[in-house]
Amino acid sequence: MTSTDQQPFLSVRDLKVHFSTEDGIVKAVDGLSFDLAKGQTLGIVGESGSGKSVTNLAILGLHDRKRTSLDGEILLDGKELLTAGERELEKLRGNKMAMIFQDALASLSPYHTVGRQIAETYRKHTGASKQEARARAVEMLRRVGIPQPDVRVDDYPHQFSGGMRQRAMIAMALVCDPELLIADEPTTALDVTVQAQIMDLLKDLQQEFGTSIIFITHDLGVIADIADDVLVMYGGRCVERGTKKEVLRTPRHPYTWGLLGSMPSLDHPVDVPLNPIPGSPPSLLNPPTGCRFHPRCAFPEKVAGGLCATERPLLDVVDGRGSACHLTPEQRADLLADLAGSRQN
Question: Does residue 125 sit in the same domain as residue 271?
Fold first, then answer.
């Protein structure tokens, strides 16, 4: 997803994250590859259980390695992360890379002020004094739009609104100027007005700091607002990737068609029904053979020889654009035109 003459800042190659359980091996991520350029935003989209968060916890080195099998390669600015030790990863977390979690109230300690939590993060990575760290916390709260930051720095998380807590989490994540920011559905629990404010804030801060962002969501509307490139995940694998314009305007995979078809749109009449994807996401303990989406797909009979149920489709990527589907380009074009026509009627 980066240009051929630009070295990716983050490179993930054939990542596998498998968990050992009493019931068997959970293949949460099963052969995932992507790149992220400096200062760009990659949107990772998919249903719950598709492997989005598991992927990014692997990047941060937050999996329990005693219970987790990690394979593949993760290079952050040329540094291999999967083989890095815990002490080395601790230095990178917060300093080189940071994460904004979905539930700010659960992520912030209720026993310490917001300012202290931001300041302690800064002190750990910079060795700053308490006074310097407090001043930095006030500065970051101001940057993320908290009113009266010199006063609110001494408030506890429960004294902040949901939107303000999320802003405080962003301040904590950015306090050491990380080069990679992972945002794990940071706006899901917020109302649409606050959600828009948080999105604008992230874009403004990205311009200011030049941060690379991975934005995890199940909402393609959010992707349309913030992402440069899009990675669509299903069943622990990537099924489609490309620029935001390519994926949203000319999607190639039936799963992406399903995601788009289940979204309301201002461009269509209000009485046009939405078309949810039938069935449920696959069990990653015993995933379907072949294409993992084929039990829910409406078009497997279009593919000769029953390949959808028996053979894993390859993710053929050319210039950052690709999809993992056995349908031919001609079949995809015809089916997509039919779907667009039925959506408008």
Answer: no
The CATH number of residue 125's host domain is: 3.40.50.300
Helices 192-209 & 162-174 angle (0-180, nearest 10): 20
Residue 244 placed within a domain = no
Residue ending a domain, among 207, 233, 259, is 233
Domain boundary among 184, 200, 233: 233
Token digits of residue 173: 């994540």
- Find all residues with CB under 8 Å of 127, minimum gap 6, and list them: none
Give tens-digit pLDDT for 273-332.
667 889 999 999 999 999 999 999 989 888 878 899 999 999 988 888 999 999 998 998
Max distance between CA atoms of the chain, in angstroms, equals 70
Note whether 206 and 82 are same-domain residues.
yes
Distance separating the N- and C-terminal Cα atoms of the chain: 35
Burial class (CB in 10 A: 0-12, 13-18, 19+), 227: buried
- Are 183 and 213 within 8 A, CB to CB? yes
d(CA 141, CA 302): 55
Of the candidates 55, 100, 60, the one whose C-alpha atom is nearest the C-alpha of residue 201 is 100
Q: How many residues does the chain have?
A: 345
Full residue range of the structural domain in which residue 87 is found: 10-233
Inter-helix orientation angle 329-344/254-261, to 10° = 10
Dist. CA 16–CA 13, nearest whole Å: 9
Whole-angstrom Cα distance, residue 271 to residue 262? 14
| φ and ψ of 5, to 5 deg | -95, 10
pTM score: 0.90
Residues 87, 185 share a domain: yes
Say if residue 227 is in the same domain as residue 264. no
